[in-house]
Amino acid sequence: MELLDTAVRMQAPARADRARAANWILLTCQMSEIRQLGATPRLLALALAAHLPVETGSPAAEQEALARMCGLPLQELTPLLDMLVATRFLRSWAHGAVPEDLHWELAGRTQLTGSFSGLEADRVT
Predict the structure, then answer these.
(1) pTM exceeding the 0.85 threshold for the entire prediction
(2) Which strands, in side-by-side order, build the sheet including 61-62?
(3) What are the φ and ψ backbone dihedral angles of 124, each rounded to 5 degrees?
(4) Please, which residues bridge with residue 90 across strands?
């Protein structure tokens, strides 16, 4: 595989972008619903919040990809998803038409993406 545009390799997120991302991660992982959980369920919650489906009803991710993102064995994914429903971080989750596909819906209070309009004004210098 050859990377034709070497400028892409040299790009890095700006400091303000990294600060916004770090703030979003902290806000997500410190939510009351998941604060008392271990690192693995919180990492899964973060991955679920970051990879919401583009439109309702479309699969958000494949089970294997989600498990790999979180460093989980595939068989541990289902109990952790159930745990996130029990803690009310997730409203629901289900397998898609293809068993490998997963659908999930965050609980109303955990809809974090796009809700940090004030962060764009924050500049870290």
Answers:
(1) no
(2) 61-62, 101-106, 90-95
(3) -95, 125
(4) 106
- The whole-angstrom separation of Cα 114 and Cα 54 is 13
β-strand pairing of 90-95 with 61-62: unpaired
Structure tokens at 77: 């994914």
Give just the sign of the alpha carbon dihedral 11, 16, 22, 25: negative
Q: Which residues contact 8 (CB under 8 A, 6 or more apart)?
A: none
Q: What residues are paired with 105 via a beta bridge?
A: 92
Torsions phi, psi of 45, nearest 5? -60, -40
- pLDDT tens digits for range 38-73: 999 999 999 988 888 766 666 678 899 999 999 999
57 within 8 A of 75, measured Cβ to Cβ = no
**Per the structure block, which two tokens stand in for 87?**
């803690």
Alpha helices, DSSP H only, in 1-125?
Answer: 6-10, 15-29, 39-50, 63-70, 77-86
